[in-house]
Amino acid sequence: MLYNFFKLAIRTLRRQRWYTFLNVLGLSLGIAGGLLLFQFITYHLGFDRYHRKAGQLYRVVSSLHLADGSVVNEPGAPLDISASLKEQIPEVRDYAVLLKVPTVTVGVSGANGHKFFTEKETLAFATLSWFSLFDYTWLKGNPSLLQESHTAVVTRRLAAKYFGNEDPIGKTISLDNAFTATITGVLEDLPANTDLQTELFLSRASFTSWHPEVERQMHASWGFINSWAQSFVWLPAGVSGGKIGKAIDQLKAQHFGADLQSVYQFHLQPLKEIHFDARFGDAMRSSLLVTLAIIATFLVLIACFNFVNLATAQSGRRAQEIGTRKVLGGTAASIFWQFMIETACIVLLAAALSLVWVCLALPVFRDWLQTRLPFDLLRDRRLQSFLLLLTFFVTVVAGAYPALIVSRWKPVSALKQQVVGSVFALLRKGLVVLQHVVVQALIICTLIITLQVRYVKNVDPGFNKESVVMVPVPDTSAGKQSWLKQRLVTDPAIRSVSFCYTAPLTGEKYMAGSVSYDARAWEDFASRSIPADSGFLHTFQLQLLAGRNIRSGDSSHEVLINETLLHKFGFHAPAQVIGHRIVNGALGDLPTTVVGVVKDFNVQPLYGELLPVMITPFSPRYNYAAIKLGGGRQEEVRQAIQKAWQATYPDKVFEYHYVNEEMDSFYHKDDLLNKLIDVTALVAIIISCLGLSGLISFFAARRTREIGIRKVLGATVPGIVYLLSKDFLIMVAEALLVAVPVAWYFMNEWLHNFAYRIAIGWWIFALAGLLSTLIALCTVGYQSIRAALVNPAKSLRSEG
User: Fold this and answer.
1) CA 621, 154, 473 angle in degrees (round to 5)?
2) Which residues contact 276 (CB under 8 A, 6 or more apart)?
């Protein structure tokens, strides 16, 4: 019986090649979209889930609640808080501390000489317990070898980078030319989906030797908080949040005065939430994953709707077949399963074709993600299960309703072809409208996201970001910096050079601290500080509103402030603060004199508001040389910069980046969302067009004789095209009425993530409506014109 079902199904599909092609292509695109988005979503949901204790690990994070209502969030915490929590709560099984170093120069001696590498967010000092809480694969050595000072372990990638094919065990590395460590172990490379990106671990005892004064300060003051010191605790499932909160309150009472206990807030952040919590780092918004899951569901559903529409439309053609089978003894169950097997064959063909689409799209997806998105159907059981479930789901959703209705037809009605009524027509209309609601909502979202991303990339940040090269400065001595600057400014293609902490808007964290104006008490807000020399204004073309520029020096005790800080002090006219004194808490309570006020500029991506900023000379914190280039000869000038830099620092490895490129990278996730919405909108449009094309060709075929009679009676081609197309265009218009408020709501919520955002104008919805109407018109118009141009004599001879 089953063999006969498959035999009949294959015969039917071969007889209806055009509709089989449309169904297979539409379903394959929907399944491919579902598979790719499933992999993207599960990839991000899997961040750091591979650690066996992941569900019981928490990071202690800090929030500073300032008097002005603002909150400064830090992923770091007081150095001793995790150990104190274990003392307060005996149930705490263990804890670990990671002291991350933002930027460090690693020196390596090998067969190819002495080389230096600048590492960012790669190196950290870890307690031995780190490797019992988190899972690493040890290729050489073991954690016990990381007990002594001056010992380190590296990942396979860094070992190859530093030492090539040489055995790294026993080799020595230097940090900032001031500290040496011996490699005692090699770890397997980290998985791509982890936020714990440390690849060079030094023993915790090494930090005490490297920075003894910082170690002392962190133990002495719980107010010494930054992203360096990250503490993790391992809690059993039974420890309540109330118990944790009570213990933290007791610790704050011991280490902070009554006036500061409300300012410093500490809480536990689950390891599984780090990837999605934007308060404490560059996170993937969970709302994006939810949005993509909804989009993936709709992609699959509109492909199913296409199938249902075409199946119900064609059911009238098979009425006599079904009636005959029932008269000859066929049961409703046998007819139901016959149609379901036909559907299953189409879905299996579509699933196979979808794998081809996925293989073609994967390289593009991986380029967008800047990572190797996994897709291994032979080994990934989760992916296999999802594909099987998706295939079953599509088969049931697409085939069950048409099969159930057709199997219930009465034999007499089927033989007389009196079975296709208003219920099917209403269902088709509803599904077509729902399809186009999804399509038009995606078109509107695509327009708005594209406009917003373009806006934030091109909005004036308050400084000139073009043609500025940032080159790390490994040695802050004034002599070497002066010599490098003299070599650079002799090139006529270089307009200016500035030594500074970093660019005005950067991915690195700025130094932030309290400030005191004249004899007033410490202000109730924090100000960002940019250590920079006098060339900073000219290099980034900041606008000076009052006063003069700062003078360069190791620490000249002069400061420039921006308009926001001026207003925070309670002044409106820039000239009012010139000559007054500010104590800068971010630079060790450095007393400075205000010599100028600059126009506001952004120091963070445009998700946030303008912040108070100070610019002051402080050469010990000059991390970069900012080099402003003239027009043309960019590559030639870059090579000249490299030559001058390597002449100054012969043992270092030259690195650089452009400010505008780094700023563009801040919006990578929004760029990614834009691309994903673009692609899904395109796929949804193609699927809906396939459905419309199938429906219009079917209805045109059914009305062949009617079209011939109308042409004989004088109907024109435009009139016949209008006759065949009007119902579909009306459905497109009805879909637009639903899509507009839905898309407006979701896009308005998304835009609230940005402090700088576009206004959603009425013309966006009008343009989306026009585009969707043109797409539908082209689709149904083509088939309508073909039907209208058929010779009337041929149409009247048709038995359709």
Assistant:
1) 20
2) 283, 284, 285, 286
Q: How far is CA 675 from CA 220, 682, 729, 770, 784, in A?
A: 50, 11, 28, 22, 34
Can you tell me the distance from the alpha carbon of 456 to that of 542, in angstroms, rounded to the nearest whole number? 19
Interaxial angle between packed helices 668-702 and 332-369, expressed in degrees from 0 to 180 and rounded to the nearest 10: 150
Whether the CB-CB separation of 699 and 724 falls below 8 Å is answered with yes
- Is there a contact between 496 and 534 (Cβ–Cβ < 8 Å)? no
- In the chain, % of residues over pLDDT 90: 16
What is the per-residue pLDDT across 689-712, written as a single tens digit (0 to 9) for each? 887 776 666 566 566 666 666 666
Name the band, by pLDDT with cuts 50, 70 and 90, for residue 800: very low
Q: Count CB neighbours of 483 within 10 A.
A: 14
Query: Which amino acid, 108?
Result: V
**Cα–chain-centroid distance for residue 629?**
32
3-state SS, one letter per residue, for 429-468: HHHHHHHHHHHHHHHHHHHHHHHHHHHHHHCCCCCCCCCE
Residue 763 three-state SS: helix
pLDDT digits (tens, 9 = 90+) for 91-150: 888 999 999 887 787 888 766 667 778 777 889 999 999 999 999 999 998 888 888 899
Give Rg (Cα) of the chain: 34
Contact assessment for residue 644 and residue 498, using Cβ atoms and an 8 Å cutoff: no
CB 557 within 8 A of CB 511: no
**Highest-confidence segment of 18-22, 227-231, 405-409, 572-576:** 572-576
Single out the residue of 58, 75, 54 nearest to residue 229, CA to CA.
75
Which residues have CB under 8 Å from 109's CB, separation 6+? 171, 172
Question: What pLDDT, on the 0 to 100 scale, is given for residue 415?
Answer: 42
d(CA 458, CA 439): 29
* CB 72, CB 526: distance < 8 Å: yes
Q: How many CA atoms lie within 13 A of 185 on its CB side?
A: 25
Q: Could you tell me the two tokens for 624?
A: 């970069």
Angstrom distance (rounded) from CA 126 to CA 98:
5
Question: What is this structure's pTM?
Answer: 0.78
DSSP 108-167: EEETTEEEEEEEEEEEEEE-TTHHHHS---EEES-GGGGSSTTEEEEEHHHHHHHHTTS-
Which residue do the tokens 């070992």 mark? 159
Mean pLDDT, the chain, rounded, equals: 81
Sign of CA dihedral 186, 191, 194, 195: positive
Measuring CA to CA, which residue among 120, 152, 71 is closest to residue 653?
Answer: 120
What span, in angstroms and rounded, lies between the C-alpha atoms of 540 and 497? 10
Helix/strand/coil for 583: strand
